[in-house]
Here is the input.
Amino acid sequence: MSISNENSIGVVPIENSIEGPVHETLDNLFKFDDIYVNYEIEKEIKLVLAVNPSVNSIDDIEVIYSHSHAINESKETLSKYNLTNFIPVESTSTAALYASKQKYSAAICSEYAAKLYNLKILLENINDSINITRFIVISKKLTTYGNKTMLMFTVPHKPGSLYRVLEKFYINEINLTMIYSRPLKSIPWQYYFYLEFEGNLEDEKVKDTLAKIQNLVTTLKIKGTFSRLQYRASNYLG
Here is the structure.
């Protein structure tokens, strides 16, 4: 996760309705202190099975590339066609690129990616169920106004540490919309917590809560307040 300069932005997936949080995104948000969240976007993802021009039928497919989430989101549907040889790659767009260069290969990707790399779409709407992905817009600018706020923190490794932090949100009647733990890369069997809650950094109750948890955490990373953008284009993301 890299933002090249102060005026650049990026768009990355953070959560999927089937697979849950995107670990790579969370870990990079925790790693890079100068990256903040400005907006969120929800989009229904419609996956296709796109193939190299050498493929004339499903029986010709030898390998299928895609992101691990996309594989898990369509594995049941594709198993009905006896397609089980999956290779995970970093993104669905990368999968389409690989499929464009390798004979008898395929990609699970968006219609946009298939068209971009001149692949043939063999199957449409291969999702096992409704698939919505939440994306975030990131930059080096901390925003303080919006509907929700994100923070990440660590607590002392002793009983009640997490409870004491969450209690402050309860006392100030701040609604938590997401809490998730991820392992610290540097210390085995210890974790950081990812938290989203309703409210913004200019809200007095939020300010009071953050002030009170300062002495309860060992690390606190405020990733910004953000609002939801309405996304209308149909096939670009994913």
User: Anything to note?
Assistant: Residues 93 and 118 are 12 Å apart (CA to CA). The chain is about 25% helix and 35% strand.
